[in-house]
Amino acid sequence: MPLLFFVIGLSLAVGAEFSPSIETYPRVRYQPRLSAQSILGMWESQFKQRKLPEKRVVAVWGLADEGESLSENSQGLSLARELSRAGAHVRIFDPRWGQDEAGKFLPQAEFVENLLSACQGATDLVVNSDLSLFQSPDWEKVKTAMKGKLFFDCMSLADADKVRAADLAHFPIGGHGWPPWLDEEYQNFVEILLHKTKPQDRILLLPSSPLTTLSPRARWYLLLNYAAAPRKLLIGGPSNASGTAPQYQDWVRERNRQGKLKGAALDSILEETQADWILWFKQSDDFKTSDWQLEAVR
Amino acid sequence: MMGFLGGLLVVLTAYLAGRLLMPNRTHYARSRYEELTTSILLGLATLMTAGMAATWALGTFSFGIATLLSLGFAGGGVWRIRREWKQAVEPCAFPVWERPLMLSLAIGSVAMTLAWPLNEFDPILHFGLKGKLLFGGESIRGEAFHALTGEFGRIMTHPNYPLGIPILEAWSAHFAGEWSDRWIQFPLAFWAFCLPGAVAFGLRRFGAQAARRGALVAACTPILYVMEFLHRGALDFAEAGLGAEKMLGGRGDLPVAAFVALACGLLLRGGRCRFLAGLAMTAAILSKNEGLALSAVLLLALALGALWNRGKGLKEFVLVGSAIAVLASPWLIHRTTLPAIDENYTEAVSYETVLHYWQEDESADKSPIPAKLYGEEWSEQSHWRPARIARYFGSEFIDVLSWGLLWLLFLLGIPQALRTPEIRWLLLFALGGLALYALILLVTPWFLIALHQKGIPARLILHLLGPIALLCSRVNQPKQDDPVH
């Protein structure tokens, strides 16, 4: 078995020219049951049990991936079945299969004819398939049709900026198959940071707006600290910021309680830390260069 | 190119340092394979220990220190090689048809390590950052390593992790003149290659067949390279070497396993090797905090083994204990000054905590995500930690994709190990190590299921691969063949 691992692993490395990139990683094949549990857990944590699954109307786009045939175990269908079993009203649109083909697997589900009909009055949207049709719809129209705003993106293929611009709450629960340091925008930003600052500089990291996610993937400052070394990155509450995922979650709450630093308080911190730069950031698990602003202090 | 040369130079220096310390060929028989692998491991242990001592004394790990130490060790190694040039070595223990297998595993493990640059969370953030700071000239007494407890300060995950691996990385970077995420791993690419050789060196005392069997058992255990490969079927093919299931690379677990295997192998050889076993355990301490706990368990096992054997073997306890006390002291003293922001098991292991988790179920308070999202593992199983730990350990023992038949062989070997005085301490160490990790998991301040999902029980038990391979191969030996000292 180790030999098999070496042969396959080294072939993969040769194919990627020994340099990992986002493309090196296969897209995550999510587990329907875990994804359904994520959605149920999210409802519970978001609404503190007030909105039970029975009160949710879930628009489900897609039952299986491009090129796949429909079966009882198709991943999109399985997820829809889990949500339906939990008590949610599931409304499905898939251009390939309707009531006749998929109804026998999902007796409680409603089947509709297009994207927007599925969203009409829905509290949640779940994208379950990699069909190109589902990747860039008119998100404004989707939001207008929906009653709620939760969008569970099992494929992680939607453009997060456009989704957020339409005021939908985007939860990419399919997860990223690739590690955050391979993010191209992050890598470009590192280049900019290294170019603009000197190796001996001290850079103070400050959130420019309330921190909005507890996702450990949003800890870009950990990666920047490594990539920018020997530049000295400084942060408020370094102990919890550097700690494990639960400590990081405490750190987010702490920072939000303290609010944005400004005026005399900011001057005092700058004096204390001897910072040469402030790196203002908005927190997100998707790295956006526009979320990071470098400001010279002296 | 410079990165490659820098890394290569460190490995060469390590080999020469190891050769300097290896006992002579006449009294401690070995094949060239055993000598090469044991020397590299011993040399890496020496570089880590000497590098830590120098860094502690001077505050920084500079190019000057790296060069001076390298010249000293390399010079000594060359002198030793010249002196022993004509001394004979034992023939290779492997029949011709097994050699390609061992060679492929050795080359494969080194190539697989270097095929990617640092590409995982722990190697980058727990170890790589510290190495980069040392390379950049930061003082280990300065704010980079200490300023984590104030209102504003520096960023560092696990600040109280030992500096052995970062020192090796910085060493490579110094010789290369640059930090390369790929080539600073060069000295870290040899753990899986050398561990089976160290096992064979220890077993050579019982003959060539024992050495051969020990090396094969260790080298063919999949978790030495990868954990649960093919567990997810086709996805593992598509992601081979990209995920965190890979054991190779800049992590701390494989070096601990390699140094523990080396220490046990050296202890089996006895004589001057016993002091070197202390050096190997020091290197385990310098690789990961678990090395310290394992050192205590080893000393306890040696002491109990000596009591069992009516005092025979007490010298091992004294020599190993003294060596660790002296060689590890720079790190242990420095460690007391470091902030323990997220991992402090010396405080966690208390009677109250043990009693708490023994009597009460684990709550979901520490779960990083809603516990419900862990599915069946949370909802359909007992929340009593001892039961959960027993289940995790049990599932490891039968996980053939990670461990092959190692645990079965171990289980079958226990009765005979109890009857064999010279290896009772090894059995006590293996069982003590398992008990230690069960205790650590019992009192861990983190959510146990989350740790399990990170492969924590398997990564901890990996540290015991060497002693278990030694024990299995010794007790399953049909008869003592051509024993040597």
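qc> Chain A touches chain B through 58 residues (CB under 8 Å).
qc> done
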